[in-house]
Design goal:
alpha/beta, Rossmann fold, 7 helices, globular
Length: 263
């Protein structure tokens, strides 16, 4: 466990199929059971973050077919839904299902535990995977599948925590059973190995800013001003990135990375 918490290896990335199946079952409804996720009360909390670090790079582009990995109700697409003709959501939870996202037709597909996707090569010209891979064991396989399923010149928006999310060998508050962040240098290597070209790469979610804002009743990453402050702090504190902080002072650092990638 020490080498995983030290960030030298990614826990779960080399699991066997039986281990992948066990992980998948543990995480299938993991996010859906964290709080109230009914359609009537569900609020997507990262629109400003996506606009700043992702969607501004897609202005003026049209997408015939978009894929959302673990996109729940698909609300993350709403700011750019007018640019999309059709959406497919690869979503394990049965609690998140619908037929449209902002008026755009949407199909739901249940993923398999092995991470292989049931789509032909080049099926999508846009893919969005925001805060999902840390719930998945074999991250390398899934990122390679995202690359395969994108058309040449297609885009992938990818955001993941780059801290451990605590010690996942023990129960944690406000966390699913299996989730763990992905060390930044490993995430960089996985993206490169899959064959993606980086258009934009930014650190974000600088702790403890989000916690302070939520304590004040704010949704920090639905607020453009807070999101820009976060971007500045993340840039200034980039040298403090640490996968498994053990002291309070080490927790003041950017905790996520946001990529805009193309094939």
């Amino acid at each position: 466990m020490n080498e995983y918490l030290a960030g030298t290896k990614l826990y779960g990335d080399d699991f066997s199929l039986p281990e992948l199946e066990k992980w998948y079952e543990d995480e299938r409804e993991g996010f859906a059971t964290l709080g109230d996720k009914s359609r009537a009360s569900y609020i997507y909390e990262h629109h400003a973050l996506n606009r700043l670090h992702g969607f501004r790079f897609l202005r003026g582009r049209r997408f015939k077919s978009a894929l959302g990995l673990g996109s729940a109700y698909g609300d993350e697409f709403l700011p750019i839904v007018s640019q999309i003709d059709h959406i497919t959501v690869l979503e394990p939870s049965e609690l998140f299902r619908g037929t449209h996202v902002g008026g755009v037709p949407c199909d739901y597909v249940t993923p398999s535990a092995d991470g292989l996707m049931p789509f032909k090569d080049g099926s999508f010209d846009l893919a969005i995977c925001l805060g999902v891979l840390h719930h998945i064991a074999n991250v390398t396989t899934v990122v390679k599948e995202l690359h395969r399923c994108l058309s040449q010149g297609g885009y992938l928006l990818l955001r993941e925590p780059i801290d451990s999310r605590g010690d996942w060998s023990k129960p944690r508050r406000c966390a699913t059973k299996r989730e763990r962040g992905i060390p930044m240098h490993i995430m960089d290597a996985i993206v490169a190995e899959a064959g993606f070209r980086i258009i934009s790469r930014h650190l974000c979610v600088c702790a403890p800013l989000p916690k302070i804002c939520r304590g004040l009743g704010m949704q920090p990453f639905n607020c453009p001003i807070v999101t820009r402050i976060d971007a500045v702090l993340s840039r200034l504190l980039r040298s403090r990135v640490r996968y498994y902080p053990t002291r309070l002072i080490q927790r003041i650092r950017p905790a996520s990375i946001y990529y805009v990638l193309t094939k």
